[in-house]
Amino acid sequence: MEMLDLRIIICVFQLLLLGVHCQIDFDQNQNLNQNPRGNPPVPAQQPQQQRPAQGTQFDIIFDDEPVQASPSCVTPTQRQGLCKALAQCAIVYSEIPSLLDNPCQRENNQLGVCCPLETGENRKPPPPGVGTNGVLNKPPPPNVPIPQISEQQLRQAIDVSIRQVQERQQNINSIIFIDGERQQNINSIIFIDGQTIKPGTPSAAHQRFFTTTNAILDKGNDAQVNLQTTLTLSNDFNLSPLQGTFALPRFSASGTAIAKTCPQTSQCREGYPYRTMDGSCNNRNNPDWGKAATAYQRILPPKYGDGINSPRVQANGAPLPSPRLVSSSYVPDDNRPYNNLTLMLMQWSQFVDHDLTHTPIVKGVNNTGIACCQSGQHVDPSTRHPDCFPIDIPGNDRFYSNFRQQCMEFVRSLPAPRRECNFGPREQLDQITHYLDGSNVYGSSDDRARTLREFVGGRLSVQNSQVTRGRDLLPGNPGECSDSTRQKFCFRAGDLRVNEQTELAVMHTVWMREHNRVARILETMNPNWNDETLYQEARRIVVAELEHITYNEYLPLILGAEFMRTFDLTPKTSGHTKLYNSKIDPSITNEFASAAFRFGHTLVQGIIQEINQFGAVRSSTSFAKTQFAPFSLYDSFDSLVRGLATQECQKFDNFVTDALTNHLFEGGSQFGLDLVSLNLQRARDHGIPPYNDFREVCGFKRAQSWADMATFMQPSVVEQLQRVYPSVDEVDLFAGGIGETPLDGAILGPTFVCLVGDQFARLRRGDRFFYEEVSARFTEAQLDQIRKVSLARVICDNSDEITVIQPLVFQQASFLNKRVPCNSPTVGGIDFNLWRSRGGGGRGGGGGGGQGGGGGGGGRGGGGRARGQRRQ
């Protein structure tokens, strides 16, 4: 029998009995026992030059090895290309069938696919509203009458507003509780605070999601004074909503009694070569761009009901339809999964989101949660907290009427100090760094970062005990939540939301292990580096990996290859880039955080599956039961990872699992919250303009009628929207966005591609430390290695016993994306020999100099020992 026939028989056996795809055509000439870590051998050439790390206070020097160029090739469509591993050519996945028909030979005689070079030819011009760099052109403000306000009148308005804010706080603090009942002090007036949220309820879990610090709440209090002054000026001078939005920002708070409430410019350390923990000093001219605890920027000005503060209403002043009515009528539950995409796509969306956005909400006395409803019923607005904005539940609601619920808890987002120290509409705060910088792994402040570090060998702290069976898990956090019977606790990570659901905690664990794996390798190779240098250099590599996976594997699926190519968002095949533009503000846009990037909620499965090593379902759990209860991770880490890489995710559309729309944060209750309702209410809270406005700013034709909406939507979707919204100009951005038909080659429709693409273009071009830029300080040879990283590689290196995986993890294993052994070159991997330093560990940032010892490699993670679904 021919050897190839025998391999085919073995392959079929593995597929049928083990659920494992094998690879014949690409790896049949390789001995998989050689180079088991999946790293290419160290180039034999001698170093050509030495390149020191930039920055006068640091003297780490890496030899800039010659880059072993990938062989050139020609694609079936006669485009010039380079021969790459499948995982390095993710952007052309739709073309892979034809590429696989003509495999090319990579370096070291390995087979690969001919990855087309991005030459810029035949690119479509950007839409009228989008710049050539992918960043939206913000429209100029309208001309409005500027009121004549003297300095004395401004001072008087400030004095009045300070007293009003003080009285407001006193009134909130005047509540006393007797036998658990709310009582009002005799001297309290105007309003009283609602009862605090009861522990163990869905609302308590939801408000836990918005955990914040006293420092952040202090910023909110500062912003409240400015906001109250804006309202006072608007009332005193009888200003229109347009004047409140566009005229009052002409007046500065600098030099006034409330100047201290303005943001203070960060002081930067000259020559510091690493990202700061809070994101400051990335842009040398605007050091607070992208910094944690700063306001979101906006693409379009807000549309508040009063132009300044009250949530959005219809253009005629009438209330908008209830978010719950929109959700229950327009966003039903239906099982509509992709047959080619895995649940890992959904999970990466959330993981990236938690690196970019975290909006705090207003809190009560002593940082307690605020209750805006009473036993599911509305209360008199005069007796509740002024930042309550509860959601009305229709009396005939198919689900909540069974539990006599007519009021859903909702508290407004904390106001943010205005970035320009002026007066104007309410803004909101991003309490984490705005950059794609691994803040969810490392934290967004020096204080948070210190609580996560081991301070030995540059490593992050871990939990390693009898309960974890000797494997490294995230540090325990019993104060968050716990399973005291089995001595299992929630976890602590860079982002406070790590325990929100089990699979999110899985991703946090993977990247904690990856950092420690990299730190151990660097320590072996550079024994003279001290803890700080090892930590910062490992962090620099890990952040580059996160960025590369996001732009190489994830965004091409979300935005489509055409958008990526048009705006130069595709990672280059070699060399550095010069795309950084210090004039581009990378800060997260309010529209992205409050609506567009919430598209991932439509991808969520209602059932979480654990998959064993044979490809069989080990267990299935309701998604709602995993929230703030990530305890299965202690025993089922690999099974959960396999589930993410195997289970299908739901399609991007206007269908969302009822695990989110009826049972969000349900816990032990009979019902939970509705995430779609919360999304719609949050955007109204932030004054986000309606969907039609964003069609226009993105360069598309504004819909004048419901028939016009059908240019981007199916007629059935338009009919559903028409049943709940009074006109095309009142449709909420989130509702309109999830109703759009996806663009060819993309998951999202045109408006969300525009808004999400704008944000990732800003993060690419407005980040001085983006991994492909010269200023990121990777040598060309190091950068070439980082481009070989894949999410599959990271999973293999940091799981416990996973041995096979498909190279493109966001996509289902298939004939084109076969599962291969983790040590297959197809999965990629970094050769860390290129991080052997010739210089010191750095003054102020690292240890002594000298040659490092030891070799690099892909070594397995999980603390140095291990390597590496939903909706019913």
TrEMBL record:
Chain residue ranges for the region called Disordered: 31-54, 840-872
Q: Could you state one GO cellular component term attached to this entry? A: extracellular region
Ranges of compositional bias, category Gly residues: 840-866
Biased composition annotated in UniProt, kind: Low complexity: 45-54
What's the superkingdom here?
A: Eukaryota
List the GO molecular function terms. metal ion binding; peroxidase activity
UniProt keywords (A-Z) are:
Glycoprotein, Heme, Iron, Metal-binding, Oxidoreductase, Peroxidase, Secreted, Signal
Give yes or no: UniProt keyword Hydrolase: no
Positions binding heme b in this chain are: H601
What CDD domains does this protein map onto?
peroxinectin_like
**InterPro entries associated with the record:** Haem_peroxidase_animal (IPR019791)
Q: Tell me where the signal peptide lies.
A: 1-22
Q: What protein is this chain from? A: Chorion peroxidase
Source organism (scientific name): Allacma fusca
